[in-house]
Amino acid sequence: MRAMGRIGRLRLGLLATALAASIAGLGAVLAQQRTDAAPRPITPRGALAADELTNIQVFRQSSPSVVNITALGLSRDLFSMNVQQVPRGTGSGFVWDDAGHIVTNFHVIQGANGARVTLADQSSHRALLVGAFPDRDLAVLKIDVPRGRLPPIPLGSSRDLQVGQKVYAIGNPFGLDQTLTTGIVSALNREIESVTRRSIRGAIQTDAAINPGNSGGPLLDSAGRLIGVNTSIYSPSGASAGIGFAIPVDEVNRIVPRLIRDGRVLRPNLGITVAPEAWARALQLPPGVALLRVAPGSVAQRAGLQPFSRNAEGEITAGDVLQSIDGEAVTSFDDMLTLLERRQPGDRVTLGLWRSGKTRQAVVTLRDHEE
Question: Which amino acids are annotated catalytic?
Answer without folding.
Answer: 107, 137, 215
